[in-house]
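Changelog-adjacent note: as of this version, every example in the card shows the full chain rather than a window. The one below runs 166 residues end to end.
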Amino acid sequence: MADISALQEAYHWNITRIADAFGLHRDTVRKRLRAAGVVPAGQRGGASVYALADVGPALYSDMIGAAGTDPDDLPPQDRKAWYQSETERVKLEQQLRLLVPVEDAHREMSRLAKAVASGLDSLADMLERDAGLAPESIQLVEQVTDALREQMYQAVIADDGESDDD
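Full-length structure tokens:
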């Protein structure tokens, strides 16, 4: 039967072994363990050994908490790095056309709205000429298209008002 104390000691590592396993420098490991207040689990061969259960969170706790951290709460050097990385991310997204400048989006939406409005303007004339609709029907088509244009206008105005409140 396995010796329980030997099994527990298998999960107690010195700083050199921890650094090798996690791909970190020994000084980094030592600094993070000290900052997290991790105490040695014992001694082996004259060197302090640490329980892995305590080591993992101590080494990576700043990365776990960083995901939801407000950049303005970071120290100046980290804040600068964060904003530089965000600037580079935005440039990359623009190059990949995943992110479009607002002026381009407004221009394209304007073209779309003009095309729809132009189509609505000419719809009654096309129906009169090509389908031979009666004047009463043409008048109804004009009323419906005018109502649609007004709805589109009101939707644009409502969206502009909502974005100002945000």
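Structural remarks: Residues 113 and 152 are 8 Å apart (CA to CA).
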